[in-house]
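Standup notes
- DV: blocked on the single-chain target, sequence here:
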Amino acid sequence: MSGHSHAKTIAHQKAITDQKRGQIFSKMVRLITIAVREGGPNVETNYKLKVAIERARSFNTPNDNIERAIKQAGGGLEGKELNEFLFEAYGPGGIALIIEGITDNKNRTLGEIKQILAQYGGKLAQEGSVRWLFERKGVIALILENQEGDWKNKETLELKAIEAGAQDFVWRDDLLEIHVPVDNLHSTKASLEKEGAKIDSASADWVAKDEFPIAETDQNLAEKLFSALDENSDVQDTYSNLKD
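- DV (later): unblocked, structure below
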């Protein structure tokens, strides 16, 4: 985990237990439900739904699950009203956190998040005190080993990313994150795919303006915090400015 999305890190792991996979699919259903309720079931006109579906597919959510979620969205999810939330917080070593999710009971979720943060050396922050440290960007991820032909070359990937309109890009081991304006996310993705790139995921994320190094003991504690937040059924994603 570092300045990128923790959930995206989970998506790139090859071994995910059945229990974890079921939890992820449940979270993706909520994400799609919110998108359909806000903009309707037409993926061509509902940008948020398109992003939600691509996110679900990045976790290998079966198409049947996705289609069922779209059809059932209008009828409600277990009779509960779902709402999105965004909490700002500080973690071990003073790192900044943005915690996003979907809940049917914000007060309950707030209490759970507070408890998790306190357990691992973190605390909630006042609204606006952390968000300014991040920017909302489109993030396209490509894994080097999944590419074919010339795309297996790091220099080629970087050049193609620039040609496709990348504002910035970051290598995290063999994973390339391409940062673009959110409005350009799908056009850049389409351009890269047309050229032969294999896209692992494309989403609108909170990207840290600067990444912040902390002591190893705090970093170990932060890893436990991220895992605990990920285990919460209401949390969709956690972003931090932690430097690798």
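- Follow-up: The helical segments are 6-11, 18-39, 47-58, 63-73, 106-119, 154-163, 185-194, 216-231.
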